[in-house]
Write a structure and sequence with these properties.
The protein folds into 5 domains: 161 residues, Rossmann fold; 79 residues, Translation factors (Elongation Factor Tu (Ef-tu), domain 3), CATH 2.40.30; 89 residues, Translation factors (Elongation Factor Tu (Ef-tu), domain 3, Beta Barrel); 59 residues; 111 residues, no CATH class. With 559 residues, the chain is an alpha+beta fold. The chain has 16 helices and 29 strands. A hairpin with a 3-residue loop joins β7 and β8. The longest helix is centred in the last third of the chain and has 15 residues. It has a 7-stranded antiparallel beta sheet, with no helix packed on it. A 6-stranded mixed beta sheet has the order 2-3-1-4-5-6. The chain has a 6-stranded antiparallel β-barrel with strand order 14-17-16-15-18-19.
């Protein structure tokens, strides 16, 4: 089922024409009937040659612009209505620029009220306007309420849609209605993209699986030309949370952030558009933009947006920025959620006037979806990385081990390369001399026999109890001692105290017998240790991720 959205100025005849096509009223609210205008989104459909087309009827009045934009979510064909007497009007331009900014490509323009027109339809202006957009696929029709054939119009729309090319989208549904039906329960509706798997829907406001009782649609069969479908989802009472209008449903978990990194549609941006009160529209949702920063590369213009709220957005989602004060628009495409370190790194590049050629000059690692079979980059799980970045990472691992281990592997590589420990472990899997363990870089040891002798000697000096003897490290070979630390055979607790892995095992076992949260005194009593040893030992356990300090008194919780 292909879904069509209406567009056009208020009172140009959108709802009248939809009623003509479908023989159904879309203005159902008492306020809509009283005022004679569409306020909220209306939904209906028509069938031609065993093919069903759903229609989302949007408001034309500027006061209901938020509702209008919501109606454009996920649809790929626009039914643009123009009053043949008034011609192109204020909201005509507003809707058209919004749709162009949202990267809509397929338009059916319908001149209405032909029966009231004296003389010929003036439509040259439309052809001239469309000449500026070479990639738009369009059809122009004339509607005479008195003489037009419903079947002829339906056939024209049907044949036009056969010629349309549709953008491939991540399977998703933006909720446009949420309501309760007596005897049925909670229901949400929306325009679903192709290949959405209803057996595995994730509600991304809470990143939890949505329990669905029933899926309803006018037409369950999709052919190769079907890219969207109007659906209603009846939800089970077992759901902890229920989606509302503006929420996102997908087949995969989506991250949240109020910081967005986007690519703008326009290479040369009119910066005046970005000054004033700005709002971002995405799917059926919207948010105020509190801050925007442009980044120019060799071929594209990017921007970092700070929003009034954290939101989930799928990669490559089309976005619309509206300057409310100037009623101007610019479109873009969502790329990723930058974290704090990525933003700091980017700001430094901008400040230092470092030339930016592409995305990988901005971010070291990028989702695989950005590239297809690019030989310049190495694939690591679902990410692509430049070979030069990999060389720098391995150089750090080899020569900067002490600094890395002091900061901790997780923090060091997140701060400097914005990659997780899991990805780093993947990178080092085939390295013969390096491994990652307990947030530390461990160099694999060649002189095993000599080290084993040193290890046995140190263990004897330390003894078996946790009230350990102090040893003079200067009596041991410095490099061999360092290798024992790196291989996690011995641990430095503080400047004076060293313990073996056997002692550490004892400490971990003691913590295992403690409650989930415990005090320093609890630990002292359980271990029979004095404060001299208890505090440094707890700090070591914090460092390696066994415990975590939770208050100034030194209380801990088990991890």
């Amino acid at each position: 089922m292909t879904v069509i959205a209406t567009a056009g100025h208020v009172d140009h005849g959108k709802s009248t024409f939809v009623n003509f096509l479908t023989k159904q009223e879309t203005d159902r609210l008492p306020e809509e009937k009283k005022r004679g205008l569409t306020i909220n989104l209306g939904y209906t459909y028509f069938t031609i040659e065993d093919k069903t087309y759903s229609i989302v009827d949007v408001p034309g009045h500027k006061d209901f612009y938020k509702n209008t934009i919501s109606g454009f979510a996920n649809v790929d064909v626009i039914l643009f209505v123009i009053d043949s007497i008034q011609n192109w009007s204020e909201q005509s331009e507003q809707h058209f620029q919004s749709l162009i900014s949202l990267n809509k490509k397929n338009f059916i323009f319908v001149f209405t009220k032909i029966d009231l027109l004296e003389g010929e339809v003036i439509k040259e202006f439309l052809s001239e306007k469309l000449d500026n957009y070479q990639d738009i696929n369009y059809l122009i029709l004339e509607f005479n309420k008195e003489t037009s054939s419903r079947r002829a119009f339906c056939e024209s729309i049907h044949n036009f849609i056969k010629t349309c090319k549709f953008e491939e989208k991540t399977p998703r549904l933006w909720v446009d209605r949420s309501f309760t039906i007596d005897g049925t329960g909670k229901v949400v509706t929306g325009t679903a993209s192709k290949d959405l798997d209803y057996e595995n829907i994730i509600y991304n406001l809470h990143n939890e699986e949505l329990q669905i009782k029933e899926v309803q649609s006018r037409n369950q069969k999709n052919d190769k030309n079907d890219v969207t479908k109007r659906v209603a989802l009846s939800l089970k009472k077992t759901n902890k949370n229920f989606p509302r209008r503006g929420d996102l449903l997908t087949n995969e978990k989506i991250n949240f952030s109020n910081n967005l990194f986007i690519e703008l549609n326009n290479r040369d941006v009119d910066r005046s558009i970005l000054r004033g009160t700005l709002r971002l529209f995405f799917g059926t949702n919207n948010a105020h933009i509190s801050k925007i920063k442009l980044i120019n590369s060799e071929k594209e213009t990017f921007a970092i947006l700070s929003l009034s709220k954290a939101v989930p957005i799928p990669i490559f989602e089309n976005l619309l920025i509206q300057n409310i004060d100037r009623d101007k628009y610019i479109g873009g495409k969502f790329l990723l959620f930058p974290d704090k370190n990525q933003i700091l790194k980017l700001n430094k590049k901008i400040k230092d006037k470092i030339k930016i050629n592409n995305l990988l000059d901005i971010f070291d690692f990028l989702d695989i979806k950005f590239f297809k079979n690019n030989k310049e980059f190495k694939q690591i799980e679902n990410l692509y990385v430049n070979e030069s970045v990999l060389e720098k990472i391995f150089e750090d691992l080899e020569s900067n081990t002490d600094s890395i281990n002091k900061a901790g592997v997780k923090d060091f590589f997140q701060d400097n390369y914005q990659i997780s420990t899991e990805i780093l472990e993947q990178l080092t899997n085939d390295k013969e001399n390096i491994t990652i363990s307990n947030n530390q870089v461990i160099k694999k040891i060649d002189n095993f026999e000599a080290l084993e002798n040193q290890y046995i000697k140190i263990k004897e000096l330390l003894g078996k109890t946790l009230e350990v003897n102090i040893i003079n490290t200067k009596e041991f070979d410095r490099d061999e001692l360092k290798d024992l630390f790196l291989s996690k055979k011995i641990y430095r607790v503080d400047s004076k105290i060293i313990i073996s892995d056997t002692h550490l095992k004892q400490l971990v076992e003691i913590v295992g017998f403690m409650p989930d949260e415990f005090s320093v005194k609890d630990f002292k009593d359980k271990s029979n240790l004095s404060r001299k040893y208890a505090i440094p030992y707890l700090e070591l356990l914090d460092k390696i991720g066994v415990t975590q300090k939770i208050d100034k008194a030194g209380s801990r919780k088990k991890l």
